[in-house]
Amino acid sequence: MARKFYLTLFLLCLLVFYFEFNLSGQSDYYPLNSGTQFVYEVKATQKSSSSLPQEQILSAMILHLGPASVQGKTVTPEGRYIDGKLAGVTFVADDETGIYYYANQNSNQKKPVVMNPIQYLIKYPVQTGSRWKQQSSGFEMVNDRKLPITLDASIVSDNEIVSVPAGVYVKCLKVEMTGKLPSLNGGPEFRISNQLWYAPGLGMIKQVQTEERLLSAPSSFTMVLNLQKVVYGE
Fold first, then answer.
1. Domains in the chain, please, with CATH?
2. What are the DSSP calls for 4-45, one per residue?
3. Which of 158, 87, 151 is nearest to 125 (CA)?
4. Contact criterion met (CB below 8 Å) for 165 and 228
5. Band of the pLDDT at 134, cuts 50, 70, 90?
6. What is the DSSP letter of 145?
7. Whether the Cβ atoms of residue 199 and residue 28 lie closer than 8 Å to each other
8. pTM value?
């Protein structure tokens, strides 16, 4: 029960950080239309040197809501559901620098909290070879607490062919984010790798993320997310 609780929190954090969309027209890799629902299957696998692999399958849904304002900033809220239950809402902003999460509101908060630092999802221009750095945190599934990390992000392709339960998509954008925390004073080394695919005119259709703890009590956590279906609002 406790493992599922922490996995749910981890999944929510990933969903908060990694879903991208565009409002300015510079990219159509995540067009935002009010009422659209994206339903994903999430397969999570935990491995360690001291036990057998553990696997869990969850359902995640993203619901695009109408435009809103947070502290005078125009944003678009996205409701996030895990196994049918509302887990929180994120608020996305778009300006000349790129697309980023500006604020977040979980189920226990009465109003949105502005993120510091903001979490960039993609920086302009949207083209192969674009790179940026992102301050983030992670490793709570392979460590007893979150650790801060700087991710190296890049657009590695705009011509991917991707097959998921919802269909086969061509000319997809592929984004990679990687990071490493070196070993200090004989402690463990941590690595993270995240790959995301976006279909033009649709949005994010696939994600594969792996977090690893090396050297001391080696373990890993892998999450594979595949788009199952899209339901369009009226």
1. 2-229 (2.30.230)
2. HHHHHHHHHHHHHHH---BSSSS--SSB--TT-EEEEEEEEE
3. 158
4. yes
5. confident
6. S
7. no
8. 0.83
